[in-house]
Design brief:
With about 300 residues, the protein is mainly α. Helix content is about 80%, strand content about 0%. It contains 13 helices and no strands. The chain is globular.
Length: about 300
């Protein structure tokens, strides 16, 4: 009952926030703000996922299921609760979303949160390589430089890693998570011109939950979980998924995927900070140096995309 009341509260909060976002002037500034908030919530999701101490499969299923449920009243309020916009690309995005989160949360089983996040930070490199081809666009020099510095920062962060303690598996899964998210972001950018962002978030999370349902039933991960675990999954789905996912797709309506990918590189920085505060995972000097390089790259990218 407490979880249901909490979900109703989050849905009511959405109604106010979504209405405010829809009434914003369509300039780069609201998109930048939405993007930065989304990235902070992305970084916090990894820490919350590790605190819940459940399987990656249950984490992703709960995250996508509760995200879709929390978005239902939002779409009903906006009179967008119909399924005419469901397409093959929407289904593909739901599958990519499930792969992205499964690989990321699985990485947390092998090493501290920072390593999965650092692997995910390869996402801008994949976008920089694929986006000009995907959208038939010319390559932008400032986006390329920002991407290079992000990769340099990631290399610095892992340069002192001991590869015998599971970090190589965590980093590899993180890179796979970054690649799948790069594909997802580019399709979201294309779809963003045709479908409202929170509706996209609903479809994609709903499809991901449907994909994962047979697996969760076979493994029996639904049984024996405490009320605290379910409350954590509701929080993960409502705030750190539905809201953040919607904000991210809102930002892609007015910003390039390359730029969004550069800002998303702040996710490991936020994640390291929160892991230090809540999990006592203390970063070393090289991790901090790499995080600083990524911060500089993100700041440079934000400056280049500032409103004129």
């Amino acid at each position: 009952m407490n979880g249901f009341i909490f979900q109703l509260y989050i849905s009511a909060l959405y109604l106010a926030l979504v209405e405010h976002i829809e009434n914003m002037k369509k300039t780069a500034l609201p998109s930048l703000l939405a993007l930065h908030i989304a990235v902070f919530l992305f970084g916090a999701a990894g820490v919350l996922g590790k605190l819940l101490t459940v399987s990656a499969l249950l984490l992703v299923f709960g995250r996508t299921l509760f995200a879709a449920l929390c978005l239902l009243p939002v779409l009903a309020y906006q009179r967008q609760l119909h399924f005419r916009d469901v397409s093959k690309s929407t289904i593909a995005c739901g599958f990519l979303l499930a792969i992205h989160w499964l690989t990321f949360f699985a990485s947390l089983n092998f090493a501290p949160v920072a390593f999965g996040l650092m692997g995910f930070a390869s996402f801008p490199l994949f976008v920089a390589l694929l986006e000009p081809w995907f959208f038939k666009e010319s390559r932008r020099a400032h986006d390329a430089w920002a991407t290079i510095f992000v990769v340099v920062g990631m290399v610095v962060m892992v340069s002192a890693t001991s590869w015998g303690d599971g970090a190589v598996y965590a980093l590899g899964l993180g890179i796979l998570s970054g690649f799948s998210f790069a594909l997802l972001a580019m399709v979201n950018r294309w779809q963003g011109g045709h479908t409202p962002p929170f509706k996209l978030a609903f479809f994609q999370n709903g499809v991901a939950a449907i994909f994962l349902l047979p697996l969760i039933l076979v493994t029996g991960d639904l049984a024996g979980n405490s009320a605290q675990t379910w409350s954590g999954l509701i929080l993960l789905g409502a705030v750190f998924t539905a809201f953040s996912h919607g904000l991210f797709m809102f930002s892609l309506r007015h910003l390039s995927t390359s730029f969004a990918s550069t800002i998303t590189s702040l996710e490991p920085v936020y994640g390291m900070l929160l892991a230090f505060l809540f999990l006592q995972e203390t970063p070393g000097m090289r991790e901090l140096t790499g995080a600083f390089i990524i911060l500089v790259a993100a700041a440079y990218g934000s400056y280049q995309h500032r409103p004129h």
